[in-house]
Amino acid sequence: MSACPSITVDPNRFRNLFPGLSQVEALATLRKPLEELEDVSDRYLAAAHLVNFPDERTVAALMICAADCHPAQAQRIARRKAVESLARMGARQALPVIQSCLNSEDTYLVENAVWALAELEAEPDAVTNALLQLLKDGRQNRRVVAQTAARLGIQEAVTPLKALRQEEDPLLVTAATAALVRLTGNKDGLAALEDYLLHPDVTVRRAVIQDLMDARAFGALAAIAAAPVSPVFRLRGVRNLADQQHQRGVAQAGALLPLVDRILLDDPGTVTLVHRYDTTPSLDFLVQELYGTDFGRVYLAVATLMASSEADTLAALTQSFADRGWNDYGAHYHMIKLFGWLGDPQPLPLVREALANRRPQFQKSRSAAAITLARLDPRNAGAALQDAACEGSFWELRYAALMALEQLQLPIPPATLADSDWLVAMRAEKTTSNGPTHGGDAGTL
């Protein structure tokens, strides 16, 4: 059995996109006169990169950038990013500068400033009037304004938020509904929010998960887990609500773990589909659907491929994988899952490669690969899965590896019982306390 090193998690795993760029270089770029910029995006990139160096020099430079209202596009986009970076660093001393951005004609800057107010926990009295005015301004992203008003506890926003529930834009209606639940404590609107999880527009389905998180809709956990959107959105929603329960000391393994298991297994049979085919499409059409961004349609294609009697389904998938699926993170994920469901060991090299793939956008494929590896190579999968159960960066991978080890009735690394992520540790405890199982409530791999 592999021995785990101590497991640590990097909360900033996507922040440092320019590891070769120093703080001094980024500061110099941010201060460089516009006419000397080699590329119009350089100042923006510097403002984004400086979030990795949260000290007084960085904060001072970003505040200067955030206060610079020069109309050039290079400065406009840098100013927006400077506001965002200041918020991500928790720089509350920048609040006066950020609040002054609320008067800008640049609606994208206003949007970032409004979001930053919530992140930095601005004093409600200092921003109430400005936010109330923005709630009436149809040019603005009033969805973000509603969310911030709720997060800051601005009770004066209740009346304008009720008016927003009459708007035609569903993204605005759901945000206003969630904000009212949070501000008033009246949960009557939660049932209506859940209905939007099956909205025809995938953008609405994704967004309402955030609204349910904001409204602390713990009763919606099962509905979120079954929503026809990417597992990334579903996991984010379930995980956020689970973390809130954990902080309150009411998280229950028996209720939460089967939901997380189900999302990571991601059988389309456990997803509530919102589309259907009048006639069975061609194999080529179904494979091409795997590249779509509306996972409601993708899951329908996956379910159809799983039920297909076509002898050349695997060949079509592996050919498409070789052509472009290897570099399309959505299709890549679905193909790795399908390889496991089809049950032919031929694609094992692709699965092992996916398990080792550290490109950030392919992380959901790594979790899928852990489960698929257990299906396709049960005799030899143990060592790789035990290693994956110890890997530090992504809790989803460690959790999925534990699921796969449990399915194969293999021992888990003892260190996973003390994983720094409480949900992974809870999953490890369930595995050891119950002994070898075959998937429990969530179904078999």
Automatic annotation (TrEMBL):
Record's keyword annotation contains Transcription regulation: no
Cellular component terms (Gene Ontology): phycobilisome
Keywords, sorted A to Z: Antenna complex, Phycobilisome
Coiled-coil regions, chain positions: none
Keyword Glycosyltransferase belongs to the record: no
Top-level taxonomic group: Bacteria
Family the UniProt entry places it in: Belongs to the CpcE/RpcE/PecE family.
Protein's recorded name: Phycocyanin operon protein Y
Organism ancestry: Bacteria, Bacillati, Cyanobacteriota, Cyanophyceae, Synechococcales
